Amino acid sequence: MDDQLFCPQCKSDSYLNPNIKIFVSPCYHKMCDNCLSRIFSSGESGCPECGTILRKTNFTSQTFEDMFVERECRIRRILTKVFNKKEEDFSDEELFEDYNELFEDTVVDMMELKNDLEVLRKVEILRQNPHIYILESSKKKKKPKTSGEATPVQEIDPLEGVIAPSVILKKPLVLPKAFQFEDKKGGYTKRITAYRAVYSLMDDNI
């Protein structure tokens, strides 16, 4: 059974009624054209599924089989009434990209709402505050603009300020094994202590 052509209210489908038409409410519940005329013949009435007060004119024909896709496309159509600027309306490309990014973020936020009535209320808030997108865009971090001239890098000598040793040994100093590995308090070893003791005899800076 094709779910797209099935009415959950009267259980009619395209097999029993080849001419059936399915309509979708703002709360995304479906019914056929016959049920739509019957339920809303006297004007406003509650949605049979969730009780939302609706009118017949609130229903639209279903376009997509997947209701998630149906809802996203409808929200995008609604939001384009507010987000209707073009690239030439912005001073640079980056602002236009921020504007489009805000549009996509708003679509995601609207998808979290229960029905189109809440979406319309949010859209009305955006309509009354057309500069919201500017405030939101200003929160984004801007890349620092660089000039055409590169800033010269200062060269640093890593040996600057280091005092040269007064005595340079031609051969490395070799200590007995007893002084090489035994730990001492404070993180020093006998090896380090022995080196300092020997070199201090030849260099006053140690």
TrEMBL record:
Residues 7-50 form the RING-type domain. It holds the Pfam family zf-C3HC4_5. InterPro entries: MAT1_centre, Znf_RING, Znf_RING/FYVE/PHD, Znf_RING_CS. One of its GO terms (biological process) is DNA repair. It is found in: Nucleus. Its main location: nucleus. Keywords: Ligase, Metal-binding, Nucleus, Zinc, Zinc-finger. One of its GO terms (cellular component) is transcription factor TFIIH holo complex. One of its GO terms (molecular function) is ligase activity. This is RNA polymerase II transcription factor B subunit 3. It comes from Pseudoloma neurophilia.
